[in-house]
């Protein structure tokens, strides 16, 4: 153990397939993530659609992601398809959506494109994370997901940084995203291996049975309640907060994208691995409660930026706090789900838990778009109301921790020789 701690953090992740998924995540987020970031700025500020209409289109894509997660879980756990084919299918859909955005001008086509993107994202996240869980032992999963989140942040930062230089003309912006997603498709097709176990007993390959088991799991149910809040916050920050800052502070879209790249994306990438290393000794539920506390602080500061007239300094601190909150949440949430899931139904458990991303990315943009179309005072107080909702998340996570403690105590009573487990 000491020799492992003495090694650099990145070198403690030993699986080649984790690094394949890391490069894939970098490419995917550079193309897909940047496109998603600039859709509100392009279609509201340049095309002339209302913030509510664009928020609705993005929200429809998020709801389509629900179907994508179910489909991704089915494909990833199915002996006839598996993780790699699910990833290739996702890449083809994302490439199609990026190509259609080049010619999109009207709301109906924007909604259709977002529906395709939602299905693509659902398949991608479920299959990619299931592949990582397959090839990592329990004590390395937080590290592995920490590396993936780092690639996520770097890819999104590169996409926003590059997209800002193409923002004046939407067609080159979306064409560049298409090229990057094509590279992602080629890379996954060549480098990714099928990681699903071929030794799974036939009785445990019934994916419909796996969905029933996951839905009835009380611990997963509690996690989902909290996870809807987490993902709504992330959806708000990504889709609504940039437009809010351009309207409330008079800052240009280019300057706002710079601030997001530096303080939300860049700071998150810088702090990601040290943060995972510092928090890895805590229970995963405890880390998620810490994340909730950081969301409270970040949203409170977003609300206070106007009255305090702190300008760019207050904005930067708020974005840094929100970045820290996301950096604490993202690696530990899937690691917790992996501990809850039976080995043969990992893709399904992840698919169920990732429905929260679809719900969150529907609720966030729709509510955020509505708030931005209201008078300035309502738009500003919206962030205070969002901060208050995090208190419910803290309570739910506390209940999840208590539930897991009771489950561990019951297991110890049945088998007294077992050592208590603190993984959750």
TrEMBL record:
Keyword Ribonucleoprotein included in the entry's annotation: no
Protein name: MFS transporter
GO CC annotations on file: plasma membrane
Residue ranges occupied by any Major facilitator superfamily (MFS) profile domain in the UniProt entry: 17-404
Keywords noted in UniProt: Cell membrane, Membrane, Transmembrane, Transmembrane helix, Transport
Subcellular compartments: Cell membrane
Entry's Gene Ontology molecular function annotations: transmembrane transporter activity
Matching Pfam families: MFS_1 (PF07690)
Organism in which the protein naturally occurs: Vasconcelosia minhoensis LEGE 07310
């Amino acid at each position: 153990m000491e020799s492992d701690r003495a090694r650099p953090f990145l070198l403690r992740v030993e699986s080649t397939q984790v690094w394949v998924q890391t490069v894939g995540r970098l490419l995917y987020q550079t193309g897909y993530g940047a496109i998603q970031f600039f859709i509100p700025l392009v279609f509201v500020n340049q095309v002339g659609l209302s913030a509510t209409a664009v928020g609705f289109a993005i929200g429809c894509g998020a709801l389509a992601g629900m179907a994508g997660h179910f489909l991704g879980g089915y494909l990833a756990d199915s002996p006839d398809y598996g993780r790699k084919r699910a990833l290739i299918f996702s890449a083809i859909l994302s490439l199609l959506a990026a190509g259609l955005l080049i010619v999109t001008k009207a709301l109906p086509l924007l909604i259709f494109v977002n529906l395709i993107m939602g299905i693509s994202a659902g398949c991608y996240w479920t299959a990619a994370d299931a592949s990582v869980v397959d090839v990592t032992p329990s004590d390395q999963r937080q590290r592995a997901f920490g590396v993936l989140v780092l690639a996520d942040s770097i890819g999104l930062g590169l996409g926003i940084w590059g997209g800002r230089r193409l923002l004046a003309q939407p067609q080159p912006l979306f064409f560049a995203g298409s090229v990057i997603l094509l590279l992602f498709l080629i890379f996954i097709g060549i480098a990714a291996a099928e990681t699903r176990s071929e030794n799974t007993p036939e009785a445990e390959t019934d994916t419909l049975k796996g969905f029933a088991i996951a839905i009835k799991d009380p611990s997963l149910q509690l996690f989902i309640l909290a996870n809807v809040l987490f993902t709504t916050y992330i959806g708000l920050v990504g889709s609504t907060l940039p437009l809010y800052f351009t309207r409330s502070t008079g800052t240009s879209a280019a300057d706002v994208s710079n601030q997001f790249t530096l303080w939300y994306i860049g700071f998150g990438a810088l702090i990601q691995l040290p943060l995972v290393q510092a928090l890895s000794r805590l229970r995963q539920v405890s880390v998620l409660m810490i994340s909730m506390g950081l969301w409270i602080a970040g949203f409170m500061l977003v609300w206070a930026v106007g009255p305090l007239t702190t300008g760019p300094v207050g904005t930067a601190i708020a974005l840094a706090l929100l970045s820290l909150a996301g950096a604490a949440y993202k690696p530990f949430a899937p690691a917790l789900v992996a501990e809850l899931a039976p080995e043969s139904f990992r893709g399904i458990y992840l698919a169920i838990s990732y429905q929260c991303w679809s719900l969150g990315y529907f609720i966030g943009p729709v509510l955020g778009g509505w708030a931005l179309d209201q008078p300035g005072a309502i738009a500003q107080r919206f962030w205070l109301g969002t901060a208050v909702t995090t208190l419910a998340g803290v309570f739910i996570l506390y209940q999840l921790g208590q539930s897991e403690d009771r489950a561990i105590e019951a297991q110890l009573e049945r088998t007294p020789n077992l050592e208590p487990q603190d993984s959750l």
